[in-house]
Write a structure and sequence with these properties.
Lambda Exonuclease, Chain A; 10 strands; six-stranded mixed beta sheet; about 375 residues; binds iron/sulfur cluster
């Protein structure tokens, strides 16, 4: 089937490099700032944002080091080693049920095919078998699920989906950060919980499509990580109802990436490819102009999750954007797009539009209060 014209447009913007796929990590970042058209388009087009940030002159602050990736893969292999013995032990300990007889379907590949669509089809087939009552004791290792994100189909790969335990199915997240005395890094746990919420939503949709009651997917997931300073797997069930509701709400707020991409000027490009002699096929200036043509919604929290935060922060500072100082300041200056403009209204060198009069009155009152306090008045 030929690609949809809007997908053509996104592929054309990406240029010659293969697309980077969505991941639960990307989706949680996207939903952390659903108003940002820039990130929505770049993620839908599958652009490598870390490379793009470098071309724009900023060191990307994210991404796992090769050491961290190797450690993570090594720990996951340990959990799955010996016929999934450690995983089954943890399921037995945490979910208090006999699971010895459960079978495991390894979905890393399907009859030699490793493509995401092939693995997703097989996952759907197995879920249909579960729906028919034929595979209730089947643990799915690296199933592939889909989720609509900004009008696009994202393929997602949870580490494990358990068989029916009690009356629920659970997702499992295997991570290599340690739990010392039962406590792991709260930031890492919170990010894992958000990613697990993405998987729960995708699994509930897959269940619904297979005519299985989606509420059978538990709102608790099993976090597996190394215990203390050893490599022994440790598991804990975590309740993620809040995260599921928040991600579902934010997904609903994302605008369609195709509609946003259609607003870009002709000739825009995010092509990061290089010619055979290693020279970039597109100049840094072309990339910068295309990125800047997409509306950003910078806030200081972007520094915690987005590869482009260095670029967007510099841009927000150059424009005097109130959001540069945080969402509270942005909220205090509705309709005023620059702190310079706000200051000009205050010192009388610019006149506000009538609809901004209330905001400027409040600013003036706050400024007077500050000067009274500065002058020693109570
Ligand atoms: S850093 Fe920029 S591109 Fe990334 S979410 Fe924030 S505003 Fe959007």
């Amino acid at each position: 089937m030929p690609p949809h014209p809007s997908e053509d447009r996104l592929a054309q913007l990406r240029g010659h490099l293969p697309p980077q796929s969505y991941s639960a990590r990307k989706i949680t970042a996207l939903t952390a700032n659903p108003a940002c058209a820039r990130r929505a388009v770049l993620d839908a087009a599958g652009v490598d944002k870390a490379q793009l940030a470098l071309r724009l002159g900023h060191e990307p602050r994210f991404g796992q080091s090769p050491f961290a990736i190797a450690r993570s893969q090594g720990f996951e292999a340990l959990v799955m080693w010996g016929g999934y013995a450690e995983l089954i032990r943890l399921l037995r300990e945490e979910l208090s049920v006999p699971v010895e007889e459960a079978a495991v379907a390894d979905l890393h590949e399907v009859a030699g095919r490793t493509t995401l669509p092939a693995r997703e089809r097989e996952t759907r087939r197995l879920l249909a078998r579960i729906a028919e009552g034929g595979a209730d004791r089947l643990i799915l290792d690296h199933p592939v699920l889909t989720l609509e994100v900004a009008g696009h189909t994202a393929y997602l790969e949870p580490d494990v989906v358990t068989h029916r335990i009690g009356d629920r199915f659970h997702t499992v997240a295997i991570r290599s950060f340690s739990a010392v005395d039962g406590q792991a890094d709260p930031v890492a746990v919170a990010e894992t919980a958000r990613q697990a919420a993405v998987y729960v939503l995708a699994l509930r949709r897959a269940f619904a499509a297979a005519r299985i009651d989606p509420t059978l997917v538990s709102h608790r997931f099993l976090l597996v990580c190394p215990q203390d300073f050893s490599n022994r797997p440790y598991g804990r069930l975590l309740d993620i109802r809040q995260e599921i509701d928040a991600i579902e709400f934010q997904l609903g707020r994302l605008r369609r990436a195709e509609d946003l991409a259609a607003l870009l000027p002709a000739g825009s490009t995010f092509d990061l490819s290089r010619s055979t002699d290693g020279a970039p096929t597109r100049s840094d200036a072309e990339l910068r102009a295309s990125v800047d043509a997409l509306d950003a919604a910078y806030a200081p929290s972007c520094l915690g999750f987005c590869e482009l935060s260095g670029h967007c922060r510099t841009e927000a500072s150059a424009n005097g954007s109130p959001a540069r100082l945080g969402t509270a300041v942005r909220g205090d200056l509705p309709g005023i797009d620059s702190t310079r403009t706000a200051l000009a209204y205050l010192d009388g060198t610019a006149t506000p539009e009538p609809e901004l009069a209330d905001v400027v009155d409040l600013l003036t009152a706050a400024d007077r209060l500050r000067s009274l306090r500065g002058g020693g008045a109570a």
